[in-house]
Amino acid sequence: MPDPILLLTRPDRASRGFLEALASDGLRPGAVVISPLIEIVPEGALPDMAGIAGLIFTSAHGVEAYQRAGGPHRPSCFAVGSATAEAARAIGLHPATAEGDAEALIALIQATSPEGPLLHLRGRHARGDIAARLTEGGIETREAVLYDQRRAGLSAEAQAALGGTAPVVAPLFSPRTADLLAASGPFAAPLYVAAMSGAVAERLKGLPRAELVTAAQPNGTAMRKALADLWARAQALEGGGPGQ
Q1: Residues in Cβ contact with 12 at an 8 Å cutoff, skipping those fewer than 6 apart
Q2: What is the model's pLDDT at position 215?
Q3: Closest among 227, 36, 224, 220 to 212, alpha carbons compared
């Protein structure tokens, strides 16, 4: 049986960043296919920023869209996880960072008790009802859609991998990408999936696969560990050789 193929389905820059982080951890897959399942497309405009006291970001795409739209600096800023926080710091913001999901972000903001109103900068497809829940909890929060996450089909290279005999190992970071991959299946190749969260794993119930694991926490570090463990099992179970 051939060695596994790593399939990365995030937008190109995020996929390459994840691949670099894997290499830093010591995992260097011999075969990698990058086939983004969503395309980030600018959409909408900034609302009136007068009176907005703080910003909320739930992805690096939101940070990039805010900068592209000419968003002004605000001293108060909250980021869902480390990658989003890094993007915010890169444009001069000073984010407080949650542990990787909407629940942790809401808890962080509520514990901080910032003066509102806050503004959540997000994509068209979002989960968690962050603005509504914070407002209901007494912290006035508005939201603005600054980009869309449009569907992109699997590349010819990805289709060939998924239709082959080599095991395919795929980390999935969002329910939307899980939905899109599941809608493209079933696949002939043995499929090993690492899900960022239980919400991601839930969307894959109907997709045949060799194994599905969920990261211990919804962050990049936990995802890389889950992926590394899954990669080793795919090699062992499918009879592949040692990692590069």
Answers
A1: 34, 36
A2: 94
A3: 227
How do residues 198-207 score in pLDDT, each as one tens digit?
A: 989 999 988 9
Residue type, 130: I
Determine the CATH number of domain 47-149: 3.40.50.10090
pLDDT for the residue 115: 87
Largest CA distance in the chain: 61
Q: Where are the alpha helices (DSSP H) in 35-168?
A: 60-68, 82-90, 102-112, 130-136, 156-162
Query: What fold, for 5-38+152-238?
Result: Rossmann fold (3.40.50)
66-120: per-residue pLDDT in tens? 999 999 999 999 999 888 999 999 999 999 999 888 999 999 999 999 988 999 9
What is the SS3 assignment for 164? Answer: coil
Q: How far apart are the first and last CA of the chain?
A: 16
C-alpha 47: how far from chain center: 25
Select from 204, 150, 211, 209 the least CA-distant residue to 181: 204
Parse the chain into domains and list their residue ranges: 5-38+152-238, 47-149
Query: How sure is the predictor about 218, in pLDDT bands with cuts at 50, 70 and 90?
Result: confident
What value, to the nearest 5°, has the Cα angle with vertex 223 and ends 130 and 15? 85
pTM of the full structure: 0.83
- The count of residues in the chain is 244
Strands 96-97 and 32-34: unpaired
Distance CA 77, CA 42 (A): 22
Q: Same fold for the domain at 5-38+152-238 and the one at 47-149? A: yes
Q: What are the φ/ψ torsions at residue 155 (nearest 5 degrees)?
A: -70, 165
